[in-house]
Fold this protein.
Amino acid sequence: MPVLGWTLLGAALVAARAVRAQAPWVPLWYLGALLAVGVAAWRLVRWRRGRPVVRWPALGLAVLSLLALLPVPWLTADIAHPPGTAWRLDGGLTIEGRRIDPPGAWYWLTVGRPPLVAEVVAGWVTGDDQPRNLAVGSRASRPVFNEPAAAAIGLRRAGVDLALEVVVEVREPLLDGLPASAALVSLNGIRITNLEGWRYALGTLGAHNNTFVAAGGGALTFDGPRLPYAFVDVLERPVDELDVAVGGRWGLSAPGRWFRNLAVGRSHGLMVALMTYADASGRDLAARRTIAGTGGIRSDGSVSRIGGLRAKAAAAREVGADVMLFPAEQAAALTNFDPGTMRLLPVATLDEAIAALVTS
């Protein structure tokens, strides 16, 4: 069985290298620990005449150690200061099945990670707060239109003609009993399909008995002349569905989906739009640099606020980014932050981001 053992070891090393290529923020000690414990478990099985002879106590301990190092796919670590993570976006963004890979290295940034099995068990023992469950609450209804909408903005900026429809997303309710986030289908009986219809629907809001219908849900009633949400984002997505996926082949794997599901919001919209523009226009915006960025994107090209900016900036610095783009209105959040050799570029619009990369 030595040949099989060496083959498995080689496959593990190739897998570790693939992980580091797409997600270089994964610590080498973690990959090394997984590999070492896995090899130890394999070595505790001896083969004689084609039959396994198992050292059960030692093998059981090795397997338990391996399980303790694995992430829990449906949870996200609920800690006071979640770490930032940087994902390679070049080669990891596909539109209609075509890989988008303009010159340079491009990263999108997220905050958080799944907890390890050992951390969850430790929480049970100590009674500490448990991680949040991705399978319940607002995280279960991650809007599927964010990437197509962002890609459409980049394509239109590059001169590609697209027929668009409006999607209105609301989040952070101001009243009890409302979903944490939702995509509106209609408001006061008026179906939302374009900007004109949306503006007309807003004009019908009165002091009492307003109703809206969210995608996948029934009608909800509220009082007041404005939508009862802190944030209302109006996006335009292609009428003919645009197949846009972030994560590439790695994002389709089980570990990739665990981390990908942490990006349940819109904070990668700016980078998706920017990379799509760079690819469609043929412009080399990176100029041999490593570009990282975060920020939502609206249909008018303006950049919206995001969370965890300092953690994301730290992640961008750790992967060696030369430039980091972020929402200009949040510049104060990076006061006293040490970027090292990385240049911080606050931007308010997609056009500003393009101009900043061209002139910086």
About this structure: Residues 134-143 have pLDDT under 50 and may be disordered. The longest strand covers residues 164-173. The CA atoms of residues 102 and 278 lie 6 Å apart. The chain has three domains: 2-69, 84-113+142-146+242-359, 163-238.
